[in-house]
Amino acid sequence: MDRWISKLQQCRYLEEWEMKQLCERVRSILIEESNIQPVSSPVTICGDIHGQFWDLLELLRKGGNVPETNPQGDFVDRGFYSLETVSLLLALKARYPDRVTLLRGNHESRQITQIIDGETLCVHGGLSPDIRTLDQIRVLSRAQEIPHEGAFCDLMWSDPDDVETWAVSPRGAGWLFGASVTKEFNHVNALNLIARAHQLVQEGYKYMFDERLVTVWSAPNYCYRCGNLASILNIRDSGTRDFTVFMAAEENQHDRNMQAMRRMSGMPYFV
Protein backbone atom coordinates (compact mmCIF):
# COMPACT_ATOMS: atom_id res chain seq x y z
CA MET A 1 0.00 0.00 0.00
CA ASP A 2 2.85 2.42 0.78
CA ARG A 3 4.26 1.78 -2.70
CA TRP A 4 0.90 2.59 -4.26
CA ILE A 5 0.63 5.80 -2.23
CA SER A 6 4.12 6.86 -3.28
CA LYS A 7 3.24 6.23 -6.92
CA LEU A 8 -0.07 8.09 -6.67
CA GLN A 9 1.58 11.08 -5.00
CA GLN A 10 3.58 11.48 -8.21
CA CYS A 11 0.28 11.85 -10.11
CA ARG A 12 0.70 8.46 -11.78
CA TYR A 13 -2.00 5.88 -12.46
CA LEU A 14 -2.18 2.53 -10.76
CA GLU A 15 -2.35 -0.49 -13.02
CA GLU A 16 -5.87 -1.72 -13.67
CA TRP A 17 -5.46 -4.79 -11.46
CA GLU A 18 -4.06 -2.61 -8.69
CA MET A 19 -7.01 -0.24 -8.93
CA LYS A 20 -9.49 -3.11 -8.74
CA GLN A 21 -7.70 -4.49 -5.69
CA LEU A 22 -7.66 -1.06 -4.04
CA CYS A 23 -11.38 -0.54 -4.64
CA GLU A 24 -12.21 -3.94 -3.16
CA ARG A 25 -10.10 -3.22 -0.09
CA VAL A 26 -11.72 0.16 0.51
CA ARG A 27 -15.18 -1.26 -0.16
CA SER A 28 -14.70 -3.80 2.61
CA ILE A 29 -13.82 -0.94 4.99
CA LEU A 30 -16.62 1.44 3.99
CA ILE A 31 -19.33 -1.19 4.12
CA GLU A 32 -18.67 -1.59 7.86
CA GLU A 33 -18.98 2.14 8.59
CA SER A 34 -22.23 3.77 9.67
CA ASN A 35 -24.22 6.62 8.11
CA ILE A 36 -22.98 8.87 10.92
CA GLN A 37 -19.39 7.91 11.55
CA PRO A 38 -18.16 8.90 15.05
CA VAL A 39 -14.81 10.73 15.06
CA SER A 40 -12.80 12.18 17.95
CA SER A 41 -10.68 15.33 17.91
CA PRO A 42 -8.06 16.39 17.06
CA VAL A 43 -9.34 16.30 13.50
CA THR A 44 -8.92 18.20 10.24
CA ILE A 45 -12.04 18.83 8.13
CA CYS A 46 -11.66 19.38 4.39
CA GLY A 47 -14.18 20.59 1.84
CA ASP A 48 -14.60 20.10 -1.90
CA ILE A 49 -11.51 19.07 -3.89
CA HIS A 50 -13.02 18.54 -7.36
CA GLY A 51 -10.13 16.72 -9.00
CA GLN A 52 -7.53 19.43 -8.31
CA PHE A 53 -4.77 16.95 -7.50
CA TRP A 54 -1.87 19.31 -6.86
CA ASP A 55 -4.07 21.31 -4.53
CA LEU A 56 -4.92 18.09 -2.68
CA LEU A 57 -1.18 17.57 -2.10
CA GLU A 58 -0.93 21.17 -0.91
CA LEU A 59 -3.87 20.53 1.42
CA LEU A 60 -2.12 17.48 2.85
CA ARG A 61 1.10 19.45 3.31
CA LYS A 62 -0.74 22.24 5.13
CA GLY A 63 -2.70 19.78 7.23
CA GLY A 64 0.38 17.82 8.25
CA ASN A 65 -0.09 14.77 5.99
CA VAL A 66 -2.82 12.36 7.05
CA PRO A 67 -3.67 13.40 10.55
CA GLU A 68 -7.28 12.70 11.51
CA THR A 69 -8.45 13.81 8.08
CA ASN A 70 -12.05 14.05 6.90
CA PRO A 71 -12.72 15.12 3.31
CA GLN A 72 -16.40 15.99 2.89
CA GLY A 73 -17.13 14.76 -0.61
CA ASP A 74 -16.94 16.14 -4.16
CA PHE A 75 -13.53 14.60 -4.79
CA VAL A 76 -14.00 14.47 -8.57
CA ASP A 77 -15.21 16.40 -11.64
CA ARG A 78 -14.19 19.81 -13.01
CA GLY A 79 -10.49 19.57 -12.13
CA PHE A 80 -7.95 17.88 -14.41
CA TYR A 81 -7.20 14.94 -12.13
CA SER A 82 -10.36 13.20 -10.95
CA LEU A 83 -8.95 9.67 -11.23
CA GLU A 84 -5.66 10.57 -9.59
CA THR A 85 -7.41 12.44 -6.78
CA VAL A 86 -9.90 9.73 -5.87
CA SER A 87 -7.20 7.04 -6.22
CA LEU A 88 -4.94 8.76 -3.70
CA LEU A 89 -7.81 9.32 -1.26
CA LEU A 90 -8.84 5.67 -1.52
CA ALA A 91 -5.25 4.54 -0.96
CA LEU A 92 -4.96 6.75 2.12
CA LYS A 93 -8.25 5.35 3.42
CA ALA A 94 -7.00 1.79 2.87
CA ARG A 95 -3.66 2.54 4.56
CA TYR A 96 -5.11 4.54 7.47
CA PRO A 97 -8.72 3.33 7.83
CA ASP A 98 -9.15 4.77 11.33
CA ARG A 99 -7.53 8.11 10.53
CA VAL A 100 -9.17 9.03 7.22
CA THR A 101 -12.94 9.44 6.91
CA LEU A 102 -14.45 9.96 3.46
CA LEU A 103 -17.89 11.54 3.22
CA ARG A 104 -20.09 11.26 0.19
CA GLY A 105 -20.74 14.38 -1.86
CA ASN A 106 -23.27 15.05 -4.58
CA HIS A 107 -20.61 14.23 -7.21
CA GLU A 108 -20.18 10.68 -5.85
CA SER A 109 -22.96 8.44 -7.26
CA ARG A 110 -20.25 5.80 1.43
CA GLN A 111 -21.32 7.03 4.61
CA ILE A 112 -23.27 10.25 4.50
CA THR A 113 -22.22 12.25 7.56
CA GLN A 114 -19.94 12.13 10.56
CA ILE A 115 -20.08 13.59 14.04
CA ILE A 116 -17.01 14.82 15.92
CA ASP A 117 -16.90 14.58 19.71
CA GLY A 118 -20.68 14.34 19.71
CA GLU A 119 -21.06 18.05 18.96
CA THR A 120 -19.91 18.86 15.39
CA LEU A 121 -21.91 17.41 12.50
CA CYS A 122 -20.08 17.12 9.17
CA VAL A 123 -22.28 16.86 6.09
CA HIS A 124 -21.61 17.67 2.46
CA GLY A 125 -24.59 19.89 1.67
CA GLY A 126 -26.99 20.76 4.45
CA LEU A 127 -30.24 20.04 6.24
CA SER A 128 -33.56 18.55 5.17
CA PRO A 129 -37.16 19.31 6.17
CA ASP A 130 -37.55 15.52 6.46
CA ILE A 131 -34.74 15.20 9.02
CA ARG A 132 -35.19 16.46 12.58
CA THR A 133 -32.84 14.13 14.49
CA LEU A 134 -29.53 12.38 13.88
CA ASP A 135 -31.26 9.04 14.38
CA GLN A 136 -33.24 9.70 11.20
CA ILE A 137 -29.96 10.00 9.30
CA ARG A 138 -28.65 6.79 10.84
CA VAL A 139 -31.47 4.72 9.32
CA LEU A 140 -31.25 6.11 5.76
CA SER A 141 -30.34 3.59 3.08
CA ARG A 142 -27.15 4.89 1.46
CA ALA A 143 -26.48 1.89 -0.81
CA GLN A 144 -28.03 3.65 -3.80
CA GLU A 145 -27.51 6.45 -6.27
CA ILE A 146 -28.38 9.84 -4.81
CA PRO A 147 -32.13 10.32 -5.45
CA HIS A 148 -33.63 13.43 -7.02
CA GLU A 149 -35.58 14.36 -3.89
CA GLY A 150 -36.04 13.41 -0.25
CA ALA A 151 -33.82 13.41 2.84
CA PHE A 152 -30.77 11.74 1.26
CA CYS A 153 -30.84 14.18 -1.65
CA ASP A 154 -31.20 17.16 0.69
CA LEU A 155 -28.16 16.18 2.79
CA MET A 156 -26.07 16.28 -0.40
CA TRP A 157 -27.59 19.34 -2.10
CA SER A 158 -29.06 21.84 0.41
CA ASP A 159 -27.51 25.25 1.11
CA PRO A 160 -27.76 27.77 3.97
CA ASP A 161 -29.17 31.14 2.97
CA ASP A 162 -30.82 34.28 4.27
CA VAL A 163 -34.31 32.78 4.47
CA GLU A 164 -36.70 32.44 7.39
CA THR A 165 -37.09 28.65 7.36
CA TRP A 166 -37.09 26.74 4.06
CA ALA A 167 -37.10 27.93 0.44
CA VAL A 168 -36.86 26.31 -2.98
CA SER A 169 -33.24 25.86 -4.10
CA PRO A 170 -32.16 27.31 -7.46
CA ARG A 171 -30.00 24.19 -7.91
CA GLY A 172 -33.12 22.17 -8.64
CA ALA A 173 -32.29 19.75 -5.81
CA GLY A 174 -32.22 20.14 -2.05
CA TRP A 175 -33.45 23.24 -0.19
CA LEU A 176 -32.32 26.60 1.05
CA PHE A 177 -32.50 26.70 4.85
CA GLY A 178 -32.18 29.55 7.31
CA ALA A 179 -30.89 30.50 10.75
CA SER A 180 -33.96 29.37 12.71
CA VAL A 181 -33.86 25.90 11.12
CA THR A 182 -30.15 25.56 11.93
CA LYS A 183 -30.59 26.77 15.51
CA GLU A 184 -33.43 24.32 16.15
CA PHE A 185 -31.58 21.36 14.58
CA ASN A 186 -28.47 22.04 16.63
CA HIS A 187 -30.51 22.41 19.82
CA VAL A 188 -32.51 19.21 19.30
CA ASN A 189 -29.34 17.21 18.58
CA ALA A 190 -27.06 18.88 21.16
CA LEU A 191 -24.71 20.17 18.45
CA ASN A 192 -22.44 23.21 18.58
CA LEU A 193 -21.63 23.35 14.88
CA ILE A 194 -22.60 22.07 11.45
CA ALA A 195 -19.54 21.88 9.16
CA ARG A 196 -20.37 21.52 5.48
CA ALA A 197 -18.84 22.06 2.04
CA HIS A 198 -20.66 22.21 -1.33
CA GLN A 199 -20.39 25.97 -1.97
CA LEU A 200 -17.48 28.06 -3.20
CA VAL A 201 -16.50 30.76 -0.70
CA GLN A 202 -13.83 33.23 -1.78
CA GLU A 203 -11.98 33.35 1.55
CA GLY A 204 -11.90 29.55 1.93
CA TYR A 205 -14.43 29.37 4.74
CA LYS A 206 -17.53 31.22 5.91
CA TYR A 207 -19.42 31.17 9.22
CA MET A 208 -23.18 31.76 9.22
CA PHE A 209 -26.03 31.92 11.72
CA ASP A 210 -24.05 33.13 14.77
CA GLU A 211 -21.31 30.57 14.04
CA ARG A 212 -23.70 27.64 14.28
CA LEU A 213 -22.72 26.62 10.73
CA VAL A 214 -19.56 26.90 8.66
CA THR A 215 -18.82 26.24 5.00
CA VAL A 216 -15.33 24.82 4.33
CA TRP A 217 -14.02 24.99 0.76
CA SER A 218 -10.76 23.19 -0.10
CA ALA A 219 -10.27 23.77 -3.85
CA PRO A 220 -8.20 26.95 -4.31
CA ASN A 221 -8.59 28.90 -7.55
CA TYR A 222 -11.58 26.68 -8.32
CA CYS A 223 -11.64 25.38 -11.89
CA TYR A 224 -8.26 27.14 -12.29
CA ARG A 225 -9.96 30.51 -12.79
CA CYS A 226 -12.00 31.66 -9.76
CA GLY A 227 -9.10 33.16 -7.80
CA ASN A 228 -10.44 32.00 -4.44
CA LEU A 229 -8.55 30.84 -1.37
CA ALA A 230 -9.11 27.41 0.19
CA SER A 231 -9.12 26.20 3.77
CA ILE A 232 -9.17 23.26 6.14
CA LEU A 233 -10.80 23.36 9.57
CA ASN A 234 -8.76 22.09 12.51
CA ILE A 235 -10.63 20.96 15.62
CA ARG A 236 -8.20 20.50 18.51
CA ASP A 237 -8.63 17.99 21.33
CA SER A 238 -9.37 20.96 23.59
CA GLY A 239 -12.39 21.71 21.41
CA THR A 240 -10.92 24.91 19.98
CA ARG A 241 -11.25 25.55 16.24
CA ASP A 242 -8.96 27.26 13.75
CA PHE A 243 -8.54 27.37 9.99
CA THR A 244 -5.54 26.82 7.76
CA VAL A 245 -6.00 28.94 4.63
CA PHE A 246 -3.96 28.21 1.51
CA MET A 247 -3.57 29.21 -2.13
CA ALA A 248 -3.37 27.10 -5.27
CA ALA A 249 -0.32 24.87 -5.63
CA GLU A 250 2.43 26.12 -7.94
CA GLU A 251 2.31 22.85 -9.89
CA ASN A 252 -1.00 23.97 -11.42
CA GLN A 253 0.85 26.61 -13.43
CA HIS A 254 3.51 24.22 -14.70
CA ASP A 255 1.48 21.51 -16.37
CA ARG A 256 -1.47 23.11 -18.17
CA ASN A 257 -0.09 22.27 -21.63
CA MET A 258 0.98 18.80 -20.52
CA GLN A 259 -2.54 18.16 -19.25
CA ALA A 260 -4.08 19.04 -22.59
CA MET A 261 -1.86 16.50 -24.34
CA ARG A 262 -2.43 13.90 -21.64
CA ARG A 263 -6.20 14.11 -21.85
CA MET A 264 -6.03 13.73 -25.64
CA SER A 265 -4.26 10.39 -25.18
CA GLY A 266 -7.03 9.14 -22.87
CA MET A 267 -7.05 7.06 -19.71
CA PRO A 268 -5.22 3.72 -19.68
CA TYR A 269 -8.44 2.01 -18.55
CA PHE A 270 -12.03 2.81 -17.72
CA VAL A 271 -13.10 3.14 -14.06
UniProtKB/TrEMBL annotation:
<keyword id="KW-0378">Hydrolase</keyword>
<dbReference type="Pfam" id="PF00149">
    <property type="entry name" value="Metallophos"/>
</dbReference>
<dbReference type="InterPro" id="IPR047129">
    <property type="entry name" value="PPA2-like"/>
</dbReference>
<feature type="domain" description="Serine/threonine specific protein phosphatases">
    <location>
        <begin position="103"/>
        <end position="108"/>
    </location>
</feature>
<protein>
    <recommendedName>
        <fullName>Serine/threonine-protein phosphatase</fullName>
        <ecNumber>3.1.3.16</ecNumber>
    </recommendedName>
</protein>
<dbReference type="InterPro" id="IPR004843">
    <property type="entry name" value="Calcineurin-like_PHP"/>
</dbReference>
<keyword id="KW-0464">Manganese</keyword>
<dbReference type="GO" id="GO:0004722">
    <property type="term" value="F:protein serine/threonine phosphatase activity"/>
</dbReference>
<keyword id="KW-0479">Metal-binding</keyword>
<dbReference type="InterPro" id="IPR029052">
    <property type="entry name" value="Metallo-depent_PP-like"/>
</dbReference>
<dbReference type="InterPro" id="IPR006186">
    <property type="entry name" value="Ser/Thr-sp_prot-phosphatase"/>
</dbReference>
<comment type="similarity">
    <text>Belongs to the PPP phosphatase family.</text>
</comment>
<dbReference type="GO" id="GO:0046872">
    <property type="term" value="F:metal ion binding"/>
</dbReference>
